[in-house]
Specification:
The structure is a homodimer of 376-residue chains.
Chain A (H helix, E strand, L loop, with lengths): L5 E7 L6 E7 L2 E5 L1 E5 L10 H6 L5 E4 H6 L3 H7 L2 H5 L5 E4 L2 H6 L5 E3 L2 E5 L6 E4 L1 H11 L3 E3 L11 H25 L5 E6 L5 H14 L3 E4 L8 H11 L9 E3 L5 H9 L4 E3 L2 H7 L2 E2 L6 E2 L26 H9 L3 H27 L3 H12 L4
Parallel strand pairs in A: 4-5, 4-14, 5-6, 6-10, 10-11, 11-12, 12-13, 13-14
Antiparallel strand pairs in A: 1-2, 2-3, 7-8, 8-9, 15-16
Helix pairs in contact in A: 6-7, 7-8, 8-9, 11-13, 12-13, 13-14
């Protein structure tokens, strides 16, 4: 197998593990560090594909579990893949569905072979094996597929964490074999490090997956309820053991402060629903801190929300208008707020990259957090 | 008073009363016939102001009742008017709020002086007189204000219809006096014809309002439950008695067939929530008839919805994708469907105007309806 994905390390900050790189994929190039907006069902909630291009989002996420249920792999194949189906010609990364399948409380039955589960939509019964998860992602045609893993819940006993990690490792090998048997060179496959909060397990997991030689690696089992310190340690234990010249993706992270913490520790890729979900609840990121737009103090604030990083699509609307839309439950509120938060995360990645290239990431991080924690 | 609004009659179809014109207003020119999208609370539901410009919507509606309650006239005045508040620099027409106030079942008390009502939001008590309705619209700063009228409910006894009409006439005179006392030359004021389903009342109302010499006239009390025949007759009775060189606006109308019927009878301006409301329910207008996008037949229909009038914002998305978004309850579904239906109505107006200028409106109408009734 000779995957088409290429990762180039372009800069390394001399003061920390932060790095800047470039991932070349069949549907385009991505500069890292990168924030990937989440489009679970083939749509980043409240945004259009044109919005995402206008914000210069270089890559989005899809989810194999959701897309398998709706619209289904037959429809996706008939359309020519998810890119065609949703009219998005930039890269897509798909999560394998493991996280979702294991989250279906009480409806799942896990065996070493795979997971039997019931649809959250209609209760219908389905089965995902590692091979099936790769087949589904192959039908989707994502540029980057993820291995089918067990996202170890938190907290986990050492015994459970170890057992769960070993299954993830066995499944990673099966995912890789299935990917190779499909000959899907246009799709890269990333392995996922587990090991919960245990140093030796995280290290063993990173080494085991590195030995399997994936095009890229993710650190999973974070952002599941653990403390910020525990998350930082999980990254610190695993990242240095992952191959330097392969991209590293921290799954499900996170708010700006966690994003910067992880970049500092050598992470290249991020996804998180928080920017989009918070937006819909009126909670907005700004360089001067979080803004809760429903707050009455904004009712007659006729200034734009973020003069420092003006959003090219809706950045000219005033806080008073955003407040009014939120208060009235207008649909436009969902879109303008989401545009804002997604652009904010994209800009945070762009500025982080610039700082790394200037060898000044720690200074950038310090200055950003100082202003960010001074707000509302 | 020397209102800044100018209406120019540009063409008259020789086969019917259909006419093409141009309304010049402080915030821009409008070619008629025109469809005005409804932005009740300072937002056309699911669309941004940039969307409306991309669709080339020349004018939108606001509602004095809703805007008075939220954000309130003090905020609107502090912002410099609704145009500034919502960042929309094209014309705005405001409904006076009469229709809404009279719809607040059981919460209203009507006297010749005005209407006492309770907010549908928090139950707070308020009072709208004709003067107050003009003051509110003056704070809003709309290009066209509407008189405060009683929209006679349907069915109405002759006695009730007559009494209600006389109050509307008295209020029209008071609205005009208040408008003049404000010296609001940058805002035009339209009178509203009532008279329910009674020929002599409709005629008396048209004559009375014409004598009051408004810059423009609306026909109200339609689209309230009456038959299509009754609506057509209301227009036929009133329109010929309204001054030829003033614009005529049919309030709250309507679906494509009613829109064309009214143009044929000499109407220039239309507003209707149906295109936006139906869109949110998955009911879409096309030149080949209505499409119910939730229908399973569209699950693998990879053609665009409307090849004849392709929507410049979302017209490239396939029916299969629109179906998927609707089925999954994605927010983008609301926007793409609304973009489609609003653009459809705008195009219907554009093509109607072109047909009138070519002296071929009845042919255009016949051909359109033949295709439109052939669909799903």
């Amino acid at each position: 197998m000779n995957p088409q994905m290429r990762f180039t390390l372009e800069a390394q900050d001399p003061h920390c593990a932060a790095r800047a790189g470039r991932i070349s994929l069949p549907h385009g190039e991505i500069e890292t560090p990168v924030f990937m907006a989440v489009g679970t069902q083939g749509s980043v909630k409240a945004l259009s594909q044109e919005d995402l291009v206008a914000l210069d989002a270089p890559i989005i996420l899809g989810n194999a579990y959701h897309l398998y249920l709706r619209p289904g792999t037959e429809t996706l194949e008939a359309a020519g893949g998810l890119h065609q189906f949703m009219a998005w010609d930039r890269p897509i990364l798909t999560d394998s569905g493991g996280f979702q399948v294991f989250s279906l409380d009480g409806l799942t039955k896990v065996t070493p072979d795979g997971v039997q589960f019931q649809s959250h939509i209609d209760g219908s019964r389905h089965f995902f094996s590692p091979e099936k998860a790769i087949d589904v992602q192959h039908s989707i045609g994502s540029d980057i597929m993820m291995c089918f893993d067990e996202c170890t819940s938190y907290p986990a006993t050492r015994e459970h964490a170890e057992k769960s990690m070993r299954m993830t490792h066995a499944w990673a090998a099966r995912c890789k074999a299935q990917w190779e048997s499909l000959g899907a060179e246009h799709q890269a496959l990333f392995g996922i490090v587990q090991g919960s909060t245990y140093e030796d397990l995280r290290q063993e997991s990173a080494r085991t997956l590195a030995d399997l030689d994936f095009p890229g690696y993710a650190i999973g089992g974070v952002s599941v309820g653990e403390s910020k310190d525990e998350m930082r340690r999980a990254v610190e234990w695993a990242a240095p053991l992952l191959p330097e010249h392969k991209p590293r993706y921290l799954m499900g992270v996170g708010p700006p402060e966690d994003f910067l913490d992880a970049i500092e520790r050598g992470i290249d890729m991020f996804d998180c629903v928080m920017p989009t979900r918070n937006a819909r609840n009126g909670s907005l990121f700004t360089t001067r801190g979080k803004v809760n737009i429903k707050n009455a103090r904004y009712a007659r604030d006729f200034e734009p929300l973020e003069p420092a990083w003006p959003n090219p699509v809706g950045g000219h609307y005033t806080k008073a208008y955003l407040h009014h839309l939120y208060r009235c439950g207008e649909i436009l509120s969902l879109r303008l707020n989401t545009l804002h938060n997604v652009f904010f995360m994209l800009q945070l990645a762009v500025h982080s990259r610039e700082a790394i290239r200037n060898g000044a990431f720690p200074d950038f991080k310090r200055a950003f957090l100082e202003a960010y924690t001074s707000g509302e």
